[in-house]
Amino acid sequence: MAFDLAVKRIYEAPEKTDGQRVLVDRIWPRGVAKKDAELALWLKEIAPSEELRKWFGHDPGRWLEFQKRYRAELEHNEEAVAQLRGLLREGKVTLLYGAHDEAHNNAVALAGYLRRA
């Protein structure tokens, strides 16, 4: 099934074209007011485990292994994944994250997982 999925930093201004905005970080991003985030959902349950997040540390050298480990966590997180897939069936979803690295973060890994599954 094809779906409309985007990824962007939560620090970028909300746009009408974002569709449903879903924060996929376990920790609320610094400096962002909840009222300004315009979230449909904060799905912290789908974020990588604290242990995996700390191990990865946004080190690009660990990116491939991080994706593999995160996919394994997602395989055992059916409820949160199903919740996100339900939103995708309704229309466009933008996954939001707070990390500085736009290429190596959990939202990018999650989008890749959803597109492959």
Describe the model:
The chain has 117 residues and is an alpha/beta fold. It has one domain (5-116). Helices cover 41% and strands 14% of the residues. It has five helices and four strands, in the order ββαβαααβα. It has helices at residues 34-37, 50-56, 63-75, 78-90, 106-116, and strands spanning 5-9, 20-23, 41-42, 93-97. Strands 1-4-2-3 form a four-stranded parallel beta sheet, with helices on one face. Helix 3 (63-75) packs across helix 5. The longest helix is centred in the middle third of the chain and has 13 residues, at 63-75. The mean pLDDT is 96.
Using the CA coordinates, give the radius of gyration: 13 Å
Strand order of the largest sheet: 1-4-2-3
Beta-strand residue fraction: 5-15%
Shape: globular
Structural class: alpha/beta
Instruction: Figure out the total of helices.
Output: 5
- Please tell me the overall pLDDT: 96
Name the quaternary structure: single chain
